[in-house]
């Protein structure tokens, strides 16, 4: 389970900003939205609001980029560049490394892992563990110098095998280190969906081979009043040509089909009709199907689901239904978490979020993103936002910031040059 994530000097994030998934002690409402880990309380969900281009997507991309580097950095050749984009709007930040750190629980142990990288190499990397209250270092890296503690014996002798552009944790995992394997497996379990592509459709289709997952996902979709009786997978043969201009070859693909009920003139069901999901169903239904795989995978595994623009193409009540899957302990017994960005402000009224679950992104005058929760926000007079406030109304009125500053359109259809010409002809 994620406790917190910090990013700095990456895309629109100039300074280090932290999204916290540990519950604020000052917030008491909706305790059902909390996960208990010993005496610690973690949030089941967090929602990001902010104007377009304020940094919501960049925060989620940062989480995906950290995951990708942990999983794949060891496979880079020594000449490969690292795909990274620092904050480019100051003349100093573009020459400094980007910062990523995650704190999380694995099997009742708390880990703090992070690194600083630029396009050429890893500048620093660290892993700390705490089984109780005291945090102990497992390894600390500064450029090519890697200091390994006695608690991390699996890393001994692997310092020289770690390339400058690779992460030490990934190298240790390749050599079957026990703790490093747990760390890498935790990152691998994260489901990051900044945007839906054909890849997520294939991922969902693959996940439907799990009978339990498929049953739960289809039962959820049927409850959303889409008139779908069943979803089935069918293999279809496709013919294509290889890249060298050779002969056509046959490729078998799995496609999703929806089953609908057909009725006679008296409203009586008489048979079923099969539709192709991609061609016959709405874009919202297609998105819901694509989401169902990673959502129910995370609910089943108790892992973290990260989604950008969760509400896009979906009715607000469907978005709320997805959020409730994670916030309700009855449908989320394995303590999965969801972090998502949205423009669906209705959730501020009926989403049943705690104040520490609601986050905002806002850019300053220099184009840098700030990140803060409603629990942290201080109103005039240094007071905190009360739990009985109308979060929707206050946000739409700009009380919490993180809204677009829209100019005056009064003269948009009658520009000044047209006025001047009209006045000259009088």
Jot down its keywords.
7-stranded antiparallel β-sheet; globular; alpha+beta; 426 residues; 6-stranded mixed β-sheet
Structure report:
This protein has eleven helices and 18 strands. It is α+β, with helices and mostly antiparallel strands. A hairpin with a 2-residue loop joins strand 6 (98-106) and strand 7. Helix 2 (168-174) crosses helix 3 (178-189) and helix 5 crosses helix 7. It is globular.
Concise synopsis of the structure shown:
With 426 residues, the protein is α+β, with helices and mostly antiparallel strands. α5 crosses α7.
Outline the fold blueprint:
Blueprint: E1 2-8, E2 17-20, E3 34-37, E4 40-43, E5 45-50, H1 56-72, E6 98-106, E7 109-117, E8 122-130, E9 136-142, E10 145-148, H2 168-174, H3 178-189, E11 191-193, H4 198-207, H5 211-222, E12 230-241, E13 248-263, E14 269-276, H6 277-280, H7 283-301, E15 304-307, H8 316-327, E16 337-341, H9 347-350, E17 358-363, E18 369-373, H10 391-396, H11 416-424
Parallel strand pairs: 5-16, 5-17, 11-15, 15-16
Antiparallel strand pairs: 1-2, 1-6, 3-4, 6-7, 7-8, 8-9, 9-10, 12-13, 13-14, 17-18
Helix pairs in contact: 2-3, 4-7, 5-7
């Amino acid at each position: 389970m994620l406790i917190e994530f910090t990013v700095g000097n990456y895309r629109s994030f100039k300074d280090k900003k932290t999204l916290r998934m540990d519950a604020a002690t000052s917030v008491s409402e909706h305790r059902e939205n909390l996960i208990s880990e010993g005496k610690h309380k973690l949030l089941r969900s967090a929602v990001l609001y902010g104007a377009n281009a304020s940094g919501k997507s960049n925060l989620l991309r940062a989480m995906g980029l950290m995951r990708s580097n942990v999983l794949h950095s060891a496979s880079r050749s020594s000449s490969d560049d690292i795909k990274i984009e620092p904050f480019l709007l100051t003349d100093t930040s573009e020459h400094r490394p980007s910062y990523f750190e995650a704190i999380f629980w694995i099997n009742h142990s708390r880990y703090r892992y992070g690194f600083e990288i630029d396009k050429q190499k890893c500048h620093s990397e660290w892993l700390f563990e705490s089984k109780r209250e005291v945090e102990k270092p497992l390894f600390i890296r500064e450029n090519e110098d890697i200091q390994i503690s006695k608690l991390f014996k699996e890393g001994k002798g692997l310092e020289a095998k770690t390339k400058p552009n690779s992460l030490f944790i990934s190298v240790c995992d390749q050599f079957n280190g026990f703790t490093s394997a747990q760390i890498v497996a935790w990152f691998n379990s994260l489901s990051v969906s900044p945007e839906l592509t054909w890849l997520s459709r294939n991922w969902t289709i693959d996940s439907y081979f799990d009978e339990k997952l498929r049953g739960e996902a289809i039962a959820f979709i049927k409850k959303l009043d889409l008139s779908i009786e069943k979803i089935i997978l069918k293999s279809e043969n496709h013919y294509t040509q290889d890249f060298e201009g050779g002969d056509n070859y046959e490729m078998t693909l799995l496609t999703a089909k929806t089953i609908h009920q057909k009725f006679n003139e008296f409203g009586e069901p008489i048979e079923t009709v099969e539709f192709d999901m991609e061609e016959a169903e709405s874009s919202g239904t297609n998105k819901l199907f694509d989401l169902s795989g990673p959502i129910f995978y995370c609910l089943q595994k108790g892992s973290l689901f990260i989604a950008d623009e969760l509400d896009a193409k979906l009715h607000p009540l469907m978005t709320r239904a997805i959020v409730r899957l994670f916030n309700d302990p009855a449908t989320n017994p394995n303590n999965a978490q969801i972090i998502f960005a949205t423009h669906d402000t209705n959730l501020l009224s009926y989403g049943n979020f705690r104040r520490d679950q609601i986050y905002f992104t806002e850019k300053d005058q220099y184009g840098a993103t700030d990140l803060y929760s409603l629990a942290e926000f201080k109103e005039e007079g240094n007071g905190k936002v009360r739990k009985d406030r109308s979060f929707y109304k206050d946000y739409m009125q700009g009380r919490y910031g993180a809204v677009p500053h829209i100019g005056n359109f009064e003269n948009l259809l009658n520009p000044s040059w047209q006025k001047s010409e009209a006045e000259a002809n009088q």
